[in-house]
Amino acid sequence: MNKPFSQACENNRAPIGDILVRLLSNRESVLELGSGTGQHAVWFARQLPHLYWQTSDRIENHSGINQWLDESGLDNIGVPIALNVSRDVWPKKKFEAAFSSNTAHIMAWPEVEIMFREVASSLVAGGLFCLYGPMQYSGVIAAESNRAFNYRLKESNPNQGIREFNDLDQLALSAGMSLLEDNAMPANNRLLVWQKT
Ligand SMILES: C[S@@+](CC[C@H](N)C(=O)[O-])C[C@H]1O[C@@H](n2cnc3c(N)ncnc32)[C@H](O)[C@@H]1O
């Protein structure tokens, strides 16, 4: 299998990385949900050499992630855990942060609910959950490009779609996490950060 490649990851890794470096300078471990190609993990683990970046995803993505990890030569990345958020057993270990990029609009809503609940259980007190992607605010998807993207998503799978910020924030609150930051990002994306209280 050829090494997978995501142009979106190449485009967004630097702006996301700037925020993660600021937020995670004194954190030691991160659990990534839906690592995808593994590109993000390699980039962020290289920028944050003091911490351990644990990848995870559905099993079908593991061979691609492992190719990126093997090539990186980094020793602060964990090989992917098989973690379909709604089907697999979550790690027992507690993490100081969790990160997920472009997953909430791909997962069905019940899976998003489980992700928030389980992330909160996997974090230490004070731990951070950083969620990147396009968002809807008070029923409005502001950017035309995101409205078109949302339409395509729902057309191909009615369970997918850009999520409402208020709904995500409610899930976070119910799981014991409060909003710390809502960062505007390039290409009409957001990086939301909640903290476990
Ligand atoms: C659009 S890709 C994003 C990948 C990567 N995070 C990125 O930003 O390029 C969506 C990812 O969500 C993962 N995913 C979808 N449903 C999932 C689930 N139920 N549990 C865990 N991961 C899931 C997919 O396997 C895929 O890696």
Distance between the termini: 43 Å
Largest sheet entry: 7 strands, mixed
CATH class: Alpha Beta
CATH architecture: 3-Layer(aba) Sandwich
Strands in their spatial order, largest beta sheet: 3-2-1-4-5-9-8
Helix proportion of residues, in percent? 25-40%
Summing up helix and strand content along with how strands pair, one would put the structural category as alpha/beta
Low-confidence stretches: none
CATH homology group:
Vaccinia Virus protein VP39
Radius of gyration: 16 Å
- The CATH topology assignment is Rossmann fold
Order of helices and strands: HEHEHEEHEEHEHEE
Count of DSSP H/I helices: 6
Backbone shape: globular
**Average of per-residue pLDDT values:** 98
In total, the number of strands is: 9
Task: Please tell me the total number of domains.
Answer: 1
Small-molecule binders here are: S-adenosylmethionine
- Strand content bin: 25-35%
Characteristics:
Rossmann fold, seven-stranded mixed beta sheet, binds S-adenosylmethionine
Describe it for me?
The chain is an alpha/beta fold and 197 residues long. The protein has one domain (7-196): Rossmann fold (3-Layer(aba) Sandwich). The protein is 38% helix and 28% strand. It has six helices and nine strands, in the order H-E-H-E-H-E-E-H-E-E-H-E-H-E-E. The protein has helices spanning 7-23, 39-47, 62-72, 109-122, 144-156, 165-174; strands spanning 29-33, 52-57, 77-82, 95-101, 123-133, 135-136, 163-164, 177-185, 189-196. The strands form two sheets. It has a seven-stranded mixed beta sheet, with helices on both faces. The chain has a two-stranded parallel sheet with strand order 6-7. A hairpin with a 3-residue loop joins strand 8 and strand 9. The radius of gyration is 16 Å and the shape is globular. The N and C termini lie far apart (43 Å). S-adenosylmethionine binds at residues 6, 8-9, 33-36, 40, 57-58, 61, 83-86, 101-103, 106-107, 111.
